Amino acid sequence: MTAIDDKTVVREYFNATGFDRWRRIYGESDDVNKVQLDIRKGHQQTVDTVMNWLTAEGGLGGLSICDAGCGVGSLSIPLAQAGAKIYASDISEKMVGEAKERAQSILAPEQLPIFEVKDLEGLEGNFHSVVCLDVLIHYPQEKAAAMIGHLSSLADSRLILSFAPKTLAYTLLKKIGDFFPGPSKATRAYLHREADVVEILKNNGWKIERNAMTKTQFYFSRILEATR
Ligand SMILES: C[S@@+](CC[C@H](N)C(=O)[O-])C[C@H]1O[C@@H](n2cnc3c(N)ncnc32)[C@H](O)[C@@H]1O
Q: Per the structure, how many domains does the chain have?
């Protein structure tokens, strides 16, 4: 399968069955199974870690932040509440629609992010910080450098990325998962070697400022904060 195919599959998935699945996982309702509940908790830990990093020195007072691949707004909304000026985009129209609805029900009109349906590669502008959580799982290794390079060109001071790390244990776990494909596994999942991601970041002029790992039973995500 080519990368172009991958992207089309991902877009269609997150506009259909993937939308329904992830809207529930990234929500508060009871209609999730045990695995989905575990993923919800793990993902929330990732969001909390990033919020703690970004607010460690106080409020975000008008800082411009791009949430690239924003999903249903799980990070955009608390960032906007903390005072940041948020630009948020996602390849999926349905995910963006849900993010907008959630934001409108929670935020004051002046806090509302600018939401757009856009592919990461189509993003333009300059932001103080760019954050891209759990999107690299949809990118094969050979496409990761161009994607990170593009996000780097949009970020003045900080780039935060999270990805599923390619370790022996997780590679085995993924293989076992691939043996039992459920309806939820409609897209390919790509793990990335941390050393590869770090090298790409360094090649784009970044240094690694902080890192963290979220690990629950079914969710794992390595988070890197890079600064100039
Ligand atoms: C696992 S979800 C993570 C959502 C969000 N970042 C979060 O952590 O809550 C992955 C999201 O990436 C989006 N996505 C995947 N490939 C993309 C691309 N090439 N450009 C923009 N968004 C993309 C999907 O539509 C989906 O909403």
A: 1
Amino acid found at 12: E
- What residue has token string 């333009």? 124
Residue 117 makes CB contacts below 8 A (sequence gap 6+) with 89, 90, 91, 92, 93, 96
Q: How far is the CA of 30 from the centre of ligand 1 (A)?
A: 23
Q: What separation in Å is there between the alpha carbon of 60 and the centre of ligand 1?
A: 24
Using a 6 Å cutoff on CB, does residue 188 contact ligand 1? Answer: no
Structural domain span for residue 113: 3-227
Pairwise CA distance, residues 119 & 192, whole Å: 20
Per-residue model confidence as pLDDT tens digits over 9-48: 999 999 999 999 999 999 999 999 999 999 999 999 999 9
Q: Kindly give the distance from the C-alpha atom of residue 134 to the centroid of ligand 1, in angstroms, as a whole number.
A: 7
CATH of the domain at 87: 3.40.50.150
8 Å CB contact between 88 and 76? yes
CA distance 144 to 127: 20
* Pocket of ligand 1 contains residue 49 by CB under 6 Å: no
Atom of ligand 1 lying closest to residue 73 CA: 9
* Number of residues in the chain: 228
Q: What's the pTM value of the predicted model, to 2 decimals? A: 0.94
162 CB near ligand 1 (under 6 Å): no
